[in-house]
Amino acid sequence: MSAYHHGNLRAALLAAAERSLRQHGAEQLSLRELAREAGVSHAAPRRHFPDRQALLDALAEAGFARLDAELRAALAAAGPEFEPRLHGVATAYLRFATEDAALLDLMFAGKHREGADRLVAAAAAAFGLLDDLIVQGQKQGILAPGDPQQVGIVLFATLHGIATLINGNLVPPHLVDGLLPTAVDQFIRGSRP
Question: How far is Cα 78 from Cα 93, in angstroms, rounded to an integer?
């Protein structure tokens, strides 16, 4: 990144933090290093992030907002039918979870901290889409009636489990391409009334 000269320092710092997170992990994130990279004084970031935890929380919140936007875009692109929508959301989540694994870890770890109300709200927006999708499948008779949250947890566990297996290189590369469609189809078959 070139030195910061004008515009939105907060956005520039978050973009640099996300790059650093991808390359080095959360442990290496430093406000001082981000300030150096942006070409500002080491005190300048403190106007936006009083401490390192505030930076991590802002990064996690931005991650949830991006995940929400990507899931919404997948739903919109898939059309009105339940099964294509489910496949679209599953694909979008898996892409996010495997391309931004360190960010996803930060997002999930951060929302369980005391006082992380903004992260909890940001997560609820993204994962509320899954609940709404389950309700759609139930209303259309594709999924069995029942507690949509419970069914959504099973779906999320499946998607997140696949992402964890891929991120941990526990799935042979030749199986990766067909894994998600197979899992979604099995989820639908197993959840039918």
Answer: 14
User: Do 133 and 75 form a contact (C-beta atoms < 8 A)?
Assistant: yes
- Two structure tokens written together for 112: 């369980």
Residue 130, token pair as written in the block: 């899954």
- The DSSP letter of residue 4 is P
Amino acid in the structure at residue 15: A
Distance CA 134, CA 155 (A): 9
Q: pLDDT (tens digit, 0 to 9) for every residue of the chain, 193 residues total? A: 444 445 688 888 888 888 888 888 888 888 888 888 877 887 877 888 888 888 888 899 999 999 999 999 999 999 999 999 999 999 999 999 999 999 999 998 877 777 778 888 888 888 889 999 999 999 999 999 999 999 999 999 999 999 999 999 998 878 888 899 999 999 999 999 8
Tokens 């936006």 sit at which residue? Answer: 48
State the DSSP H helix or E strand holding residue 83, giving kind and residue range, or none if neither. helix 82-99
What is the pTM for the complete model shown? Answer: 0.86
* DSSP conformation class of 3: P
- Residues 165, 175: Cα–Cα separation, whole Å: 11
| Residue 42 in tokens | 């080491």
